[in-house]
Amino acid sequence: MADITRRLGWRHLRGAPTAHIRHHRSGTLVHDGPGLSFWFRSLTAALSEVPVDDRELAMTFHARTADFQDVAVQATVTYRVSDPAVAAARLDFSIDPDTGAWRGAPLEQLGTLLTETAQQHALDVLARTPLAAALVDGVTSVRERVAAGLAAEPRLPATGIEIVAVRVVALRPEPEVERALRTPAREQIQQEADRATYERRAVAVERERTIAENELASKIELARREEQLVDQRGTNARREAEENAAADKVRAEAEATRTVRLARAEAEAAREVGEARAEAQAAWLRVHADVDVTTLHALTGTRLAENLPRIDSLTVSPDVLTGLLAKLGASQ
C-alpha cells in the first residue's frame, strides 16, 4: 500500500521499490515506474500500484485418483508481475488517492486464476494415476505437469504474470485410507523389530550357551587336573612310603646287626669276665687252701666287718663279753 500524505489540498505519494506506480492525470500518463515519489491532486489523478516482487501463493485442493480415491494436494506457486502496464490494464490495481489502499482485490483475482489453472492440470494427472502410484511418484509428476501447464497457459502472459517456481508439498489421502495404508508398513516395521529382537535374544542365548560350555569345559579340565594331582599325590605317597620302608628296613637290619654284634661282644665279655673271675676265684681258693683256719676266720671277720653297716655305738653286756672270751680261750 502506497504512503500518501495531505498538504493544503495536495497529496504526496511515496511508493516502495517493489511497487510499480502508474499516475494518470486527465487521461495522460504522468508517472510510471517503481519506487516513485511525487505530488498530485486527488481530483485529477488516477493511481494504480502493481507489486513487482516475487509472491508465493499457497493452495490446497482435492482430487480423485484413477481408483476413485480422494487425495489432498498441497502446493505453492511463486509468481511475479513481469509487465505492470499490462497487469494494470487487465486487473484493477487502482488505489484510493486519499488512503493509498486498493479499491479492488487484484491479488485475490490472481490467486484464483493461478489456483484454478494449477488445479486443472493436477486433476488431469491424478485422474489417470492409481492411489499407490500417486503416493509414490505423484509429487514429482504433479509438480512437472502443473509447472508445464502454467508456463503454457496463454492467459498468464496476457495478464503480465510470470511463473517463477512450482512446488508440490504433499499428496495425502483421506485419514481412513492413510491409516489403512500405514498398517502394512507398521506391521512390517514391527515384524522387523520383532525379528531383530529375536535375533538379539538368539545371539544372547548362543553367547550364554557358549559361556556355559566354556565353564563346563573349564570344570571338566579342572576335575581332570585334580584327578591327575590326586594320582600324582598317591604315587608320591606310595613312593615315599616305599622309600621310608626301605630306609626303615636298612635301619632295622643295621640295628639288628649292631644288636647282634653288641650281644656277641657282651657275651664274649661276660664269658671272659666269668673266666677271669673263675680264675681269680680259683687262685683265691688256691691261696687260701694253704692258710690255717684261724687266719681264714680272721679274714672272714674282716670282710664281714667291711660289709656291715656303720655302727656309731656298741653296747656289750657282761654275758656276751664272757661268752666271747670263753670262746676265744677255747679256740686257743
Please mark out the parts with pLDDT under 50 across 5 or more consecutive residues, or reply none: none
Radius of gyration: 74 Å
H and E order:
EEEEEEEEHHHHEHHH
How do the strands line up in the largest sheet? 1-2-5
Overall helicity: 55-70%
The computed structural class is alpha+beta
Shape: rod-shaped
Mean pLDDT across all residues, rounded? 84
Number of helices: 7
Largest sheet: 3 strands, antiparallel
Number of strand elements: 9
What percent of residues are in strands? Answer: 15-25%
Distance between the termini: 196 Å
Structure description:
The protein has 332 residues and is an alpha+beta fold. Helices cover 60% and strands 21% of the residues. The chain is built from seven helices and nine strands; from the N terminus they run ββββββββααααβααα. The strands form three sheets. Strands 1-2-5 form a three-stranded antiparallel sheet, with no helix packed on it. Strands 4-3-6 form a three-stranded antiparallel sheet, with helices on one face. Strands 7-8-9 form a three-stranded antiparallel sheet. The termini are far apart. The mean pLDDT is 84.
Features of this protein?
332 residues, three-stranded antiparallel sheet, alpha+beta
Chart the SSEs and their pairings.
Elements: E1 3-7, E2 10-14, E3 19-25, E4 28-34, E5 37-40, E6 45-51, E7 55-64, E8 70-81, H1 84-90, H2 106-126, H3 131-152, H4 155-158, E9 161-173, H5 175-289, H6 293-307, H7 318-331
Helix pairs in contact: 2-3
